[in-house]
Amino acid sequence: MNFELSEEQKMIQQSVERFVQENYDLTNRIKISSEDPGYSKDYWSSMAELGWLGLAFEEQDGGFGGNQIDTLVLMEQFGKGLVLEPFLANIVLGGGAIKRGASQAIKDSIIPGIMDGSMHVTLAYAEEQSRFDIEDVATSAREEDGNFIINGKKSMVLNAESADRIVVVVRTSGSQVDEDGISLFIVDATSEGIQRENFPTVDGLRASEVTFENVKVPSENLIGEKDKGFEILQAVVNDAILALAAEAVGAMEVLYKDTVEYTQQREQFDHALSDFQVLQHRMVDMFMEYEQCKSLLFRATMETVQDPQLSQRTVHALKHLIGKSGIFVGESAVQLHGGMGVTEELRIGHFFKRLLVIDSQFGNADFHLNKFTNF
Amino acid sequence: MDIKLSSDDLAFRDDVRAFFDDNKMKAGEDYFSWRLDWFKKAREKGGWDVPKWPEKFGGPGWSPTQHYIWEQETAQANIPFDLPFGLGMLAPILMNYGNEEQQERFMPDIRDRKVNWCQGYSEPGAGSDLANLKTKAVLSDDGTYYTVNGSKMWTTLAHVADWIFCLTRTDDSGIKQQGITFLLFPMKQEGIEIKPIITLGGSHTVNTVHFTDVKVPVENMIGEEGKGWTYAKGLLEHERTGLAGLSKSLVELEQLKDNARSIQRGNGNLMDDSSYKSKIGELEIDLLATEFTELRSLASAAAGGEPGPESSILKLKGTEIKQRIQKLTVEASGIYSSAWGDKGVGPAFAKGGTAGYLNSRYFTIYGGASEVQKDIVAKKVLGLTKGSSK
């Protein structure tokens, strides 16, 4: 048992940290976010050149054969700058499904493009009625002359606007909430019958409502076995939870540290705010929640790397704590910054928004507490 | 980063389990002779009787992982009780600040569990503000002994202690942290009066202790006169990680779940009650996180010598978790939670549950109240000052 990053991981950590410091001040982030496609293509290329996009792919697919700990290292640093580039959509979600279940032909045709930044993918899983239940899938695919015909609507699809391919979760058999009968297909985002309705999210990222109307997909585009896609989906969602939790931990660190710094500078009643014990204890609580989240992040990630079968319960625990503590730290940071906390001028509000969004993705705190207690 | 236990660690765990198994108390065996024999055998294993002592003083010199395994295994095994005062509190002070003669005089009896120690720190006017202590020690004209007068309060197990390690004031001319002197003396002597304090759970654990002209030879002083605060404070910080007791809490939580499952509710049991279940779930999630905070703290202490900032939150979280387990036990007891005394009505676990909960309130008060702990984290970790006017 050890908690040390490898030398290689430490080097990556430092290089991501430097990248974020040099490129992600608030003004620049707002600018990038407000222009299409909602992230910087230059930064995305740099990330590809630095090898970050290939870390999590298998060596036989041309990647570096990294695991969830490598993704943790990247995401925690991304969280400190609220990085906009679609790492989650491409590498963890779309890429995660492809590397787990796609045929070698599809892997060969897609993964090199993902790693060099030229091919964008994402995952369409949620639907209007599904809320946080990933097994609740109404979008259907029926077999017809060696093809599948997809009909339905997917919601809150991350970065679909810039995706070349969409991995879509569909029902091929069973009733609407069965884990059996779920299948995954990779489809060309420009296929006839696909409509994307793009919009910004609360945190300045991009998402889309994606409608599928008689979209024809060849059966080779199946990812994993037909009707057996749930296992892949669950594994991808778990990876996404770990990645988002790492990002949240990075964001929480910025929030508590910014708050400590601000209260030392701001004076009221002839004292620095940091002199007041009631505020000190609130900041200690923020610090403690951050450390506890970091501990559980390490635990869930290390357990997943060792044995994903045994880590599911801890992953639920993690997402619960990240949601609850993330919002506590965000709200506290805003409160302790006073009026300035509720403006767009300081970066803390933007970090708070990101933590709010993270709680709403892949199941919020209550959802995962419920899963945890019923496990 | 890797969570796997190495084959050496797994072998160590098997060794620990086998030791616990081989040395279980047999039917009809006398508890106290079994206890002493157990520690003797643990010593023969290579310092297992003093797991936290450094190798230099006969400890086993374990890695953080081995300490973690030991804590997990002891939480589940039936091993003899131990008290922290001599082993965990006085011994490190003797190791760091005592002279060789004092180490040789006191440490073997501590190790052999022959002498019960108590801690004379708090006073009626010195609780969280411990440095405010007033118990006076005056050096004799010939410089051979101190005469101690004053009172200590909340002294745990003073009524069964053989000796006390005691903070006394030898000088009040400077700031209050100066002029404190660390003395050791026997409890069973003239001039010492012990009065029980009954706590909310109805039990007698703590006491008030009055000293009237108690004579203490100078060779019983640790370190230098007037430097006692430094010795006591160093220990308080050093011991922050020792108070969490998380493995024990995990075992207690599993017991609590079993107890709750034994309480029928309609067609199910109390664990089907969504409010109750949520509280159990949140508690367990906090425990899972805190357990890893402890591991991180152990690892950083092993790597750099000093525990990292995360260690400062262990007492805060660990004590709060223990209290929540007690509270949920009371809740599980339902109507029977109001029965008092030894009668025992309702489910077996309900007996003494409320008393246990009431006594557990001191977890966040002793050893530095949670609010004082937060002051320390604010200052030491976050670098915040308090009340400095501009």
Secondary structure elements and pairings:
The complex is a heterodimer of chains A (375) and B (390).
Chain A: H1 7-23, H2 26-34, H3 41-49, H4 68-81, H5 87-101, H6 104-116, E1 121-124, E2 140-144, E3 147-158, E4 165-171, E5 182-188, E6 194-200, E7 206-218, E8 222-223, H7 230-265, E9 267-268, E10 271-272, H8 277-306, H9 308-336, H10 347-360, H11 365-374
Chain B: H1 7-22, H2 31-44, H3 64-76, H4 84-97, H5 100-111, E1 117-120, E2 136-139, E3 145-156, E4 163-169, E5 180-186, E6 192-198, E7 204-217, H6 228-238, H7 246-261, E8 264-265, E9 268-269, H8 274-304, H9 314-333, H10 353-360, H11 370-380
Parallel strand pairs in B: 1-4
Antiparallel strand pairs in B: 2-3, 3-7, 4-5, 6-7, 8-9
Helix pairs in contact in B: 1-3, 3-7, 4-5, 7-8, 7-9, 8-9, 9-10
Q: Which structural category fits the helices and strands of chain A?
A: alpha+beta
- How many domain regions of chain B? 3
CATH superfamily of the largest domain in chain A: Butyryl-CoA Dehydrogenase, subunit A, domain 3
Largest interface: A-B, 44 and 48 residues
Number of helices of chain B: 11
Strand order of the largest sheet of chain A: 1-4-5-8
How far apart the termini of chain A lie comes to: 26 Å
**Content-based structural category of chain B:** alpha+beta
CATH architecture of the largest domain in chain B: Up-down Bundle
In terms of quaternary structure, what is this? heterodimer
What is the CATH fold-level name of the largest domain in chain A?
Answer: Butyryl-CoA Dehydrogenase, subunit A, domain 3
Number of domains of chain A: 3
Determine the number of helices of chain A (DSSP H or I, runs of at least 4 residues): 11
**What is CATH's topology name of the largest domain in chain B?**
Butyryl-CoA Dehydrogenase, subunit A, domain 3
Strand count, sense and barrel status of the largest sheet of chain B are:
4 strands, antiparallel
CATH homology superfamily name of the largest domain in chain B: Butyryl-CoA Dehydrogenase, subunit A, domain 3
Radius of gyration of chain B: 23 Å
- Shape field of chain A: globular
Low-confidence runs of chain B? none
Helix share bin of chain B: 40-55%
**CATH class term of the largest domain in chain A:** Mainly Alpha
